[in-house]
Amino acid sequence: MALTALQPYKSNPQQLKQKLLPVFADELLARTDTLISRIRPTSLSLQRRYAIIEHVTAIVRRCFAIQDVTAVPFGSVPLKTYLPDGDIDLSIYSTSPGAQTLKETLRDTWASQLQMCLEDEANNPNAVFRVANVQVIHAEVKLLKCLVDNIVVDISFFQIGGLNTYNFLEDVDRFVDQSIPARKHLFKDSIILVKGWCYYESRVLGAHHGLISTYALETLVLYVINLYHRELTNPLQASEGV
C-alpha cells in the first residue's frame, strides 16, 4: 500500500465549529465553572503562598547578606494558575550594576550556601514556617528544593527565562481578554481547567517525572486559542481543542 505524504494541517472554520462548538448545555458550562472555581487559587491560598515567598526571600537575603540579591517569584503563583497542590517557583536575582559579576561569583556555590541556611532554619524551633526536606537537584537547571509549611518551593539561580515567560503569559492573558471579551481571563481559566485534567485525571503533568511540563501545557493552550479564537468563548471549548 502506497503511503501518501502528510500535508500541513489546514484550518477549516466549519469543521472547527462542529468540533469545538457543540451546543453545550447550560448545566455543563455551569459545572465547568464550578470545577474551575474549586481548583483555582483562592485569596486565602494566595496570602499563604506570598507569606511563604516573603519568608524564603528573607532567608535568601540573610544568607547572601554581603551580596545584593533577592528572590523573585515566577510561574503559576504570580500568574495565578496554580492548582491546590501546586509548588512555588523562586529565582535568586539581582538588579544591581554588578549583577553579572555576582552571577559568575555565586554560580557554583549558591546552592550549597543556601542549603545550609535553610537547614539552619529547619532546626529553628521558633521559625515562623516549618522548613523540611532541603535538597539540591543537580539537573540541567540546578534547583534547591524544600518544603515550607508543607508546600514545595523550588529555588533557582538567575533564571531570566522563567521571569520573561511569566511576563509574556500575563501579556497574552490581557491580549486574549481584549480579543475575546466574552470571557474575562479565558486564557488563564483554560490553563487551570486543562492543568487540572492533566494532573488529577490523566496523570500526565510533571516534567520532573518525564511527563508534560507546565510551560508546554500553557503553550498548547495558547496554540488552541490562537487557532480557534473566532469560535472560542469559554474554557471548556479550549479544553476540547487540547
Overall description:
The protein is α+β, with helices and mostly antiparallel strands. It folds into two domains: 13-39 and 162-241, no CATH class; 43-158, 2-Layer Sandwich (Beta Polymerase, domain 2), CATH 3.30.460. Helix content is 52%, strand content 13%. The protein is built from ten helices and five strands. The chain has a five-stranded mixed beta sheet with strand order 1-2-5-4-3, with helices on both faces. A hairpin with a 2-residue loop joins β4 (143-148) and β5. The protein is elongated and about 60 Å long. It starts with 12 loop residues before the first helix and ends with a helix. Pfam families: MTPAP-like_central, PAP-OAS1.
Main attributes of the structure:
single chain, 242 residues, alpha+beta, Beta Polymerase, domain 2, 2 domains, 5-stranded mixed sheet, 10 helices, elongated, MTPAP-like_central, NT_sf, PAP-OAS1-bd-rel
Compact summary:
Residues 33-164 form the Poly(A) RNA polymerase mitochondrial-like central palm domain. The chain has ten helices and five strands, in the order αααβαβααβββαααα.
Radius of gyration from CA coordinates: 21 Å
| Measured distance between first and last alpha carbons | 32 Å
In quaternary terms, these chains amount to: single chain
What's the architecture of the largest domain, going by CATH? 2-Layer Sandwich
Give the class from helix and strand content and strand pairing: alpha+beta
List the secondary-structure elements in sequence, H or E: HHHEHEHHEEEHHHH
Strands, count: 5
Helix content: 40-55%
**Which stretches are low in confidence, meaning pLDDT under 50 for 5 or more residues running?**
1-17
Average per-residue pLDDT, rounded, comes to: 88
How many structurally independent domains?
2
